[in-house]
Structure formats: structure tokens, C-alpha cells
Amino acid sequence: MVSRPVQAGVGLLTGVVVFASSLGGLFALTFAFVHGRFGDSGPRVTAAFIAIAGFVSVGLVPFLKYPANPPAVGDPSTLGMRTSLYFAMIAISLAAMIGTALLQRHLSSRMSVWNASVVAALGYIVVMIVVAVGLPGVNEVPEQFPAVVLWQFRLSSIGAQLLMWTTIGLLFGLLTERAAETGMRRAPLRTSTV
């Protein structure tokens, strides 16, 4: 239905823009919920932590278990199963990351923030190792497929995720901080005397 040149050009651009815009909206909602709840961090620091946690839980960890494959590689009859496993890995990883943040916040009242963060991060790692071992593997790349092409595709895939999360985190933090500073400078002008 859609030619390869369209898929590789306009189709790819459209897909990336729609995906990044959706992710940016979810990022903004997460920021609105998290900002001010986990310490006195400013907008840039909060946005950076959300971006790092998002990249690790949504991009990197699922990628380590189910790395991306080039188009048309793999058995078409298992596409539904592979997609379900990948999204299950994302959902579990995201839930574990949220649990990690809550655990870190709880432990911070009993120990230093650094120690609480290390314990919570180790908890996330242990949970995700257990999940990765428990979920079935998917190895459908044909033996004759060029390893260099597979490696370059996978590297490009995770690199695009890293670039997207970094851009969203840095730009969102910068723009939110500027908006907050502008709002504070304008705040005295809005006060009225009665």
C-alpha cells in the first residue's frame, strides 16, 4: 500500500514527529505530577531525571531484552507475540521505575538520599533481571543476515531513542525554567491593591 521510498522519507518523518509529540505530552504530564514531590529540584533537574528514568525504563531496558530488528526480519506469524512481549517489557519496566522512585522517597526518610537512591536503583536492577530472565527470548534473525547491518540498525535505533529523550529532557527543562522565571518576574505586576 505504501512504497518503500515513502516509508523511508515522509512516512518515517511523520512517524517520528507523531511519536515524539505524544511522548512529549506524556513527559509534560509526568513533569507536572513529579515536580516538587521529590525534593526541591528546579525544573531543569527534574526534567533531566525524568528523561533519564524514561530512557532507561522505556528505551534501554526493553531494548536489552528485545532489541530492534530491521524491517521484514523475522517470522511474520510471530509479529503479534513479539510486539506483545516488547510492550509487556516496557510496561513492567515503567512500573518498576515508578516503584523505584516511590521506594527511594520512602527510604530517604530513614537514610541519606544517596543511600536511598542506590538501594532503590539496585532494587530496579534486580527486578528487571528477574523479569528479563522470566520472559521468553525472541531470536528470529536469519543466520545469513549480515551482522554489520543488524548491529548498525540496532545502534541507530537506540541512538535515536537516546537523542529523543535527551532533547525532550533538556528543552523541556530549559523552557519550563524560563517560563517559571518569567512568571516570577511578572507576579508583582499582577497584585492589586484594594
TrEMBL record:
State the UniProt keywords alphabetically.
Membrane, Transmembrane, Transmembrane helix
Transmembrane segment boundaries: 12-33, 45-64, 84-103, 115-138, 158-176
Q: Does the keyword Protease apply?
A: no
* Keyword flag Transmembrane helix: yes
Q: Name one Pfam family in it.
A: CbtA
State the InterPro entries in the record.
CbtA_put
User: Coiled-coil intervals in this record?
Assistant: none
Q: What is this protein called?
A: CbtA family protein
